[in-house]
Amino acid sequence: EVQLQASGGGLVQAGGSLRLSCATSGFTFDDFTIGWFRQAPGKGREGVSGISNSDGSTHYADSVKGRFTMSSDNAKHTVYLQMNSLKPEDTAVYYCAASYSDIGLLVDNSYDYWGQGTQVTVSS
After folding, report:
1. CA 36 vs CA 84, 96, 124: distances in Å
2. Nearest alpha-carbon partner for 19 in 117, 120, 112
3. I need a surface site. Which of 42, 59, 105, 123 has the fewest CB within 10 A?
């Protein structure tokens, strides 16, 4: 059974940092593209970042470039999202997801499996 477990969310002041983790199991980690998405109250789900299964490259939404860094630990089957210089507009529930393909890496309907979300709240 494919499982993705996101954790690490919390409450932080603007300008602060958080690191999210996504622990995965039930599939061959190297074969999947892993992405991070977020959904703020009253808004649609937004692609934040992703690591391609074809070449290991990372991709970011313009809104987080230079502030967020995605990485992976293949031995632990875990991906991370280091979030620095957080802004109130980063407040959302953050999800990790897995896809068989790296096409549409920041598009939510490209993904096949989803974990539960973790809440990130940034106060001003």
Report:
1. 15, 5, 23
2. 120
3. 42
